[in-house]
Fold:
Amino acid sequence: MKSSNPVLTGRGFTEGGGTSQQPRDLTAAQLETMYARPSAGPARTGRMTMGDVVARTATTLGTVVLGVLLGWFALPERYGLAIGAAVIAFVLAMVQSFKRTPSPALIIGYALFEGVFLGVLSRTYNEAWQGAPVQAVLGTVAVFCGMLLAYRTRLIRVTARYRRIGLAVSVAFLIAIVVNLLFSAFGGGDTLGIHTGGLGIAFCALGILLGAFFLSLDFQQVEDGIRHGVPQQRAWLAAFGLTLSLVWIYLELLRLISILRD
Structure:
């Protein structure tokens, strides 16, 4: 089953991710020697393991944190550079999303520039609502742990119906954001009212739920990839997808906290 996450779709996270080879003709002695050897583990066969996913995700998130520190302490008042970093991060993410193979350089570059943007943005929020970034980080960790627990205990099952409903809501959510941006650009202000008041709170809550939904898709893709023996390099795509989902959740939590405390 393929993921709807654009960085995982069609990237080999399915059964038969590698190419099969026909065995050569072997003598009886050679076959006996071959079957007497211990079976090769995932690390020796070049297949992705959970350790690979954890290590790549830690590297990517660590780079995000490095960028956050840079943006928070080195660029506190340079909002133009922060916007530029956000644009660069978006472009790198899109390029990686449409590549057929993972590029660690693109993924690390995205993480760094995204972190710079988050650092400046978080400092701005912190000046207006003291402690909001820390609360958002704790909330993001809580959502991740809760979704992981729910997925591992099978309280949440990624079925075809679950996927269809989640994607339909995601499309509607993104359309509302685009429409609001267009109206704001030409009409000024929060035209649809999705950034303030009760509607803003509901919209942020929906965004957090959608982030959790994409986390569940990421978890399933990692599980399927390990089970089907996809190449080890695909762990970078898993780390990329998880990072995108966590950044989404953090931003929505940051907005929610600011509305609640305004």
Remarks:
- The chain has a mean pLDDT of 83.
- The longest helix spans residues 197-228.
- The CA atoms of residues 82 and 117 lie 5 Å apart.
- DSSP finds nine helices and no strands in the chain.
